[in-house]
Amino acid sequence: MMAHVLKLISYIFHPIFIPIAGTISYFLITPKYTTIELRSGNILPIFILTIIIPIICFFILKNLGVINSIFLTKINERKYPLLISLALLLMILTKVIPDNYTIELYYFFLGLIAATSTALFLLIIQFKSSLHMMGMGSLLMFLICLSIHFERNIIIAISFLFLASGLVATSRLYLKAHTRAELLIGLMIGIASQLLTVKFWL
Predict the structure, then answer these.
(1) How much is the pTM?
(2) I need a surface site. Which of 25, 101, 176, 177 has the fewest CB within 10 A?
(3) Which residue from 29, 195, 173, 25 is spatially nearest to 110, judged by alpha carbons?
């Protein structure tokens, strides 16, 4: 029973959902007036590029025998999904956001690109950082920065993300998907990548 619950947590907080979660969170938190066109102009293409296309790519890669699981448990399975993710994030940064410009989202995605690039670099030295914790760290730090930037009290959302991050880490350890070091490095990559960009918009 516990294994099923923890595996469900790994699915719910899968890194594939982090970009859209950050985008929706921004529009829920921002006090700026945003039109429906602006919101849909960001949310819809980001949803397609970060969820729909990666899922299609997953099935293609799985049918080709390149990967076995959506959790990318082996180091050699991570290269192509991370490269695809990086390409899609770059597309969002160069094609989607400039058309419906929001500076906070621009630097959020720049941070995600930096984090993904770092995870790819670590693959070269055969280190498997936790993409789950990288995503949770990125989203958590983005929300904290938005709270400070807009002077909004979103302590409940931030507390929930702290709790969720703990549950995700527990899940990945229990399922033997990562070591403590891999989880910690993943979390640090996510947090640091957002902190490095925050000085440009906070």
Answers:
(1) 0.93
(2) 176
(3) 195
